[in-house]
Amino acid sequence: MSERRENPSRRGGASHSQARLRDQYNAWLQHHRLSAADSLSRVLGQPGASLLTWLVIGIALALPVGLNIALDNVNQLRASWESPASISVFLEVQINEEEARQLQVELASWEQVRETRLIARDEALDEFRSLSGFADVLSSLEENPLPHLILVTPVASGDDQMTDLHAQLQQHEGVAEAVLDMVWLQRLASVMELSRRLVIAIGGMLIIGVLLILGNTIRLAIESRRDEIVVVKLVGGSNGFVRRPFLYTGLWYGVGGGLLAGLLVSCGLWFLEGPIGALVLLYESGFRLSGLGVMGILNLVIIGGCLGLAGAWVAVSRHIARIEPR
Asked: Which alpha helices (DSSP H) does 46-182 contain, by range?
């Protein structure tokens, strides 16, 4: 029985191929490190120009992010207003208090109603007199012009359920008018949705502006190193080899702009926190202004870095290929 022996030359060729791939990988990794360090050194070596670029990117990113945070805070405040939803049922003037209480008990027995509360006309007049500041004028009235009011809190707060209950109350005998207290909040929700779409549109245009700014910055960097690129290509450097440092340059610009955007938004929220806190105390509300947080700033840095890479890639792909040795 013969033994199969591995060919030494084949084994040596495989080892040589693995060593060659390892060397290529190490060289590729080493060039990435050198490109990243060299591009960062060049960016920091021009503090004035780099700071202007970071400011433009930071402001372009901070504007839509700040507006979006403002909309989120308004939504948070609107959510506290929406609970609980209620319908104000104004009774006819000729309805007396006993009939109003009977109607309150009847409405409370409906399946769609969670609870009801009767505000008698005398109670409503006293409250209006204390809040309006027209106590003398109201005291001169011969009779109370205000009707009885029943506040109805429905079980479900969906738009369809609220609309159906409102229609039933409006058609009920003895009811002069039923007012859905959530109508203005629904209008606010529509305005908020429109505002959010405007923020998305503005953010999209600003992002395009960031890409154009980064592309122009990288193009100027390429032109300033044209002779160096020609020499590298003469000795056999590929477009990928030449492209790498400029991609890292775009990355550093984007990361710096994203970090600056996070700082601008945080400073803006800190500037507004005092007046908003004082206003919240006056209204005795538990609302708290929410900001970016650490993860929000980190996301801005990542977004800025991705935009920097994208802008640099567009500029490099267009201009590197045009620079060829003559």
From this structure: 47-81, 97-108, 121-132, 135-139, 159-171
Angle between helix 226-234 and helix 183-224 axes, rounded to 10 deg: 70
Q: Is 70 exposed, middle or buried (0-12, 13-18, 19+ CB in 10 A)?
A: middle
CA pair distance 268, 68, nearest whole angstrom: 13
Instruction: Give percent of the chain above pLDDT 70.
Output: 79
> What's the CA gap between 259 and 53, in Å, rounded?
13
* Residues paired with 152 in a beta bridge: 87, 116
What is the model's pTM?
0.66
240 neighbors 309 (Cβ within 8 angstroms):
no
Task: List for the chain the helix, strand, coil content (%; round to 5).
Answer: 70, 5, 20
Query: Is residue 175 helix, strand or coil?
Result: strand
